[in-house]
């Protein structure tokens, strides 16, 4: 279990961190989908244009599904075989390639109409082995990125939720192909506020549900008393159950 105070790239290499368990995280799925929708919006593709998009760090295919739903074809590259396996199980429509973007992008010149990358490029700033040079890997990536695209690159940056608290602020690096396109306006902090209100409402409902359970005299689900009652029931049914201890029902800390 990863501490909330640590960024993913500070905990383990991407091919280890991104596994089947991470692919099933509902919170991650929601965030990645929203970021993908925003990235597609920033591409500023014409609505009637069926484009071929490169998904850099495609993972389990969440961003690719956004591209598919928008009528585009895509090719995804990722360093994690586990995540690509999940993408295959989900029957994503894009083509999947196992590769390290810090070494080279193995595509022909002028293949793609655009490229998106969600939560992938920051991994290039880390060195997982003594032979890896982050500066060299970053240079290699950005040097090889223009080639598979149809024209040269020009870069700008865009901040989403500019007036919102820092955790809600999200930076998008936009590399324009050929000419500088007009970018969509930054999202207002009202949308960030709406997300916060939704989280507060969910927390309030959970507390109300817990209060109702306590009034009914029943044991709250997942509590120590609830767990012991379930274990007693399993013992009466002849099942092999672990012994109770002072740690029964307590949340466990992160494992090494």
Structure overview:
The protein has 256 residues and is of the alpha/beta class. The protein has two domains: 8-186, Vaccinia Virus protein VP39 (Rossmann fold, 3-Layer(aba) Sandwich), CATH 3.40.50.150; 191-236, no CATH class. Helices cover 37% and strands 14% of the residues. The protein has helices at 14-17, 20-23, 26-43, 62-69, 81-89, 134-144, 189-215, 224-236; strands at 52-56, 73-78, 95-98, 114-117, 153-160, 170-177. The strands form two sheets. A four-stranded parallel β-sheet has the order 3-2-1-4, with helices on one face. It has a two-stranded antiparallel ribbon with strand order 5-6. It starts with 13 loop residues before the first helix and ends in a 20-residue tail after the last helix.
Q: How is this structure best summarized?
A:
The protein is α/β, with parallel strands linked by helices.
Descriptors for this entry?
methyltransferase; 256 residues; 2 domains; SAM-dependent_MTases_sf; single chain; Methyltransf_11 domain-containing protein; alpha/beta; Rossmann fold; two-stranded antiparallel ribbon
Instruction: Count every helix, treating DSSP H or I runs of 4 or more residues as helices.
Output: 8
Uncertain segments are: 154-164
What spatial form do the alpha-carbon principal axes imply?
A: elongated
Q: If strands are numbered along the chain, what order do they take across the biggest sheet?
A: 3-2-1-4
What is the succession of H and E elements?
A: HHHEHEHEEHEEHH
CATH architecture of the largest domain: 3-Layer(aba) Sandwich
- CATH C-level class of the largest domain is Alpha Beta
Protein name: Methyltransf_11 domain-containing protein
GO molecular function: rRNA (guanine) methyltransferase activity
Biased composition (Basic residues): 216-238
InterPro entries: Bud23-like (IPR039769), Bud23_C (IPR022238), Methyltransf_11 (IPR013216), SAM-dependent_MTases_sf (IPR029063)
């Amino acid at each position: 279990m990863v501490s909330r105070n640590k960024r993913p790239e500070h905990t383990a290499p991407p091919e280890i961190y991104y596994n089947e368990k991470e692919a099933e995280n509902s919170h991650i799925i929601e965030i990645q989908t929203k970021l993908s929708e925003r990235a597609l919006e920033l591409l500023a593709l014409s609505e009637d244009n069926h484009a071929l998009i490169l998904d850099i760090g495609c993972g389990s295919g969440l961003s690719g599904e956004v591209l598919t739903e928008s009528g585009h074809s895509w090719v995804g590259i990722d360093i994690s075989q586990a995540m690509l396996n999940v993408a295959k199980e989900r029957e994503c429509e894009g083509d999947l390639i196992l590769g390290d973007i810090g070494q080279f992008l193995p595509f022909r010149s002028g293949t793609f109409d655009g490229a998106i990358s969600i939560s992938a490029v920051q991994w290039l700033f880390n060195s997982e082995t003594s032979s890896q040079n982050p500066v060299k890997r970053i240079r290699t990536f950005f040097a090889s990125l223009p080639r598979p695209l149809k024209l040269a690159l020009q870069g700008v940056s865009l901040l989403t939720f500019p007036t919102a608290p820092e955790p809600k602020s999200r930076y998008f690096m936009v590399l324009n192909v050929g000419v500088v396109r007009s970018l969509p306006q930054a999202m207002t902090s009202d949308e960030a506020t709406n997300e916060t209100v939704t989280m507060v409402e969910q927390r309030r409902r959970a507390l109300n549900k817990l209060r109702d359970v306590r009034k009914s005299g029943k044991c709250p689900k997942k509590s120590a008393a609830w767990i012991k009652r379930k274990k007693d029931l399993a013992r009466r049914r002849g099942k092999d159950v672990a012994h109770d201890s002072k740690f029964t029902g307590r949340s466990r800390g992160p494992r090494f």
